Amino acid sequence: MQPAITIIVPVYNTEKYLRECLESLVHQSFQNIEILLINDGSTDKSQNIIDEYSEKYTFVTGITKENGGSSSARNLGLQHAKGEFVIFIDSDDYVDERYAETLYRTAVRQCSDMVICDFVRVTDDGKVTRDYKLDLGKEKIRILTFLSCNRIIRRSLFENFDIRYCEGITCEDIPVILQLEAVARNVKILPYAGYYYRMNPESATSGFKKRGIRKEKIPFDALDQCIQFCLENGKNFTKPQLEFYICRIVTSLIFEVAKGGERDVIIYMCRRLRKMFECYFPDYYKNQYIKLTAVPHIPFSQRAGTWLCIHLMRRKCLEPFACLYAGISK
């Protein structure tokens, strides 16, 4: 029988957390699932754990590949997926026992191609530090949390629109999720925090924040293709809303990705960002949503960060600011 859901779990050197992750998946209340564990060239004992679970549970399959990053692991998982829907789980995270059922039942009942839920951020040892609420607000602009993992997605979207994760970059979730949200039918936001997102100090994201980002890892080409895709195919948000989402992405790149980066990389990033806006959104600084009072359901610090970055870019002052911030944050 074809599974209703394929759960794809990229695994890379997460033996410390993997068993907790898998225990939360194999004991889901909804059992019409398949779980694909994609070992992305782990050098620790992760494969032993994968073998243990794939031998014990018939709906668990282990797949081994050379190291290529989480994007390549997810893409390989999509190639093997059989479910009507897919769920991505990071191997250092875990979920509530009703996670798959809650998202799936909502998608079926609401005829939705994508259901997104709130999530909880936890420390390395599992202590809850923050709940993320994805409130849309009356402006229909939600807090930008383009994670792949806090949602269920109809698999046909990937096939019908030829959407795949861009490999070899950072922030690989953002372009893919923005494209999916642009074309998904009846996207639903569920006030249910069933996903536990661990702040793993050994993750790839933590790594580049410590060492600084390299030019080739910044997702400019993927963002460029994403914007073109959304402008041509998008039906779920207006051009000003898309423009605002890109403004928020730029803010994240400056305040998070560029943190601790080298001066030449920061300057390169700022110039590429400005060129991208001049190409697709020449009047970006007039966007109605970047006003400090426009979207009150978004935290003020985030609204202020977006407003600051956009107006600094307009006045060609983003480069010195970003370089100063990157230097202070090292």
Question: How would you portray this structure in words?
Answer:
The protein is built from 12 helices and 9 strands. The chain is an alpha/beta fold. Strands 1, 2, 3, 4, 5, 6, 7, 8 and 9 form a 9-stranded mixed beta sheet that branches. Helix 2 (46-56) links the parallel strand 2 (33-40) and strand 3. The termini are far apart.
List keywords for this structure.
330 residues, alpha/beta, 12 helices, 9-stranded mixed β-sheet, single chain
Mean pLDDT over all positions: 90
> Biggest β-sheet, characterized?
9 strands, mixed
> Span between N and C termini?
53 Å
What is the chain-wise order of helices and strands? EHEHEHEEHEEEHHEHHHHHH
| Helix-and-strand structural type | alpha/beta
Low-confidence stretches: none
Whole-number radius of gyration? 20 Å
What is the strand content? Answer: 15-25%
Could you say which overall geometry the principal axes of the C-alpha atoms support? globular
How much helix, percentage-wise, in residues?
A: 40-55%
Total DSSP helices? 12
Secondary structure tally: strands = 9
List the helices and strands and how they pair.
Blueprint: E1 5-11, H1 15-26, E2 33-40, H2 46-56, E3 60-65, H3 70-80, E4 85-88, E5 94-95, H4 99-109, E6 114-122, E7 128-132, E8 151-154, H5 156-160, H6 173-183, E9 188-198, H7 204-211, H8 220-233, H9 239-257, H10 263-280, H11 300-314, H12 318-328
How would you summarize what this structure contains?
The protein has 330 residues and is α/β, with parallel strands linked by helices. The protein has 12 helices and 9 strands.
